[in-house]
Hints:
6 helices; five-stranded mixed β-sheet; globular; six-stranded mixed β-sheet; about 30% strand; alpha/beta; about 30% helix
Amino acid sequence: MNLLAIDTSSVACSVALQLGADIIERHAEEPREHTRLLIPMIRDVLEEAGVSTSDLDAIVLGNGPGSFIGMRIAASVAQGLAFAAGVKIIPVSSLAVVAAQVFAESDAEQVAVAQDAHMSEVYLGIFQRGASGLPVATGDERLASLSEITELSIDPETERLAAGFGWQRYPDLMQLNASRFSGDSTVMHPHARFLLAIADPAAAIDAENVSPAYLRQKVAEKPASSGS
């Protein structure tokens, strides 16, 4: 399939184009620069491949959770391209994308991905390595406060890594849960190449039905004072 993947849910602006077995990508980590970078990146990968949006079979969207503004930028661009090309959108969890890269680059059995949700909270997703080597969620993605993550057992036999920028942003969270991990990963933000790896064509939806995974609906709402 010919697929264009985009993710701007974090400080990273990431684009990848798949044409059969070939992948062309652009990735930059420049905070608050998504509106400047995204369209030129898309244009670059299409021009390098010598194709246009009319040659695409679908668009793969990093659907969050993550930055509210970043998610809206990617969703709006994906919708515009999909409408113009007459194709559908395949939404993919931006947390699962990080997990997919961790599994591809390590022998980890599990990974807990945490991204900064601000207000002393993180967006948390826990994934198991599936039979195909791709991430399988062990539960719903959720907001987590700076507390022990009770879903993660203390099991020294399990090769479990912490990934995502949230662990660096809130070192107290890592300290509270250090005994639950065998190590940490250097993978901080989603790379569009790995959106392609986990995109399921059967999950494709019409562009007008895209709904970013905000998790927190009210940006100004105060976070919970307790609980994990």
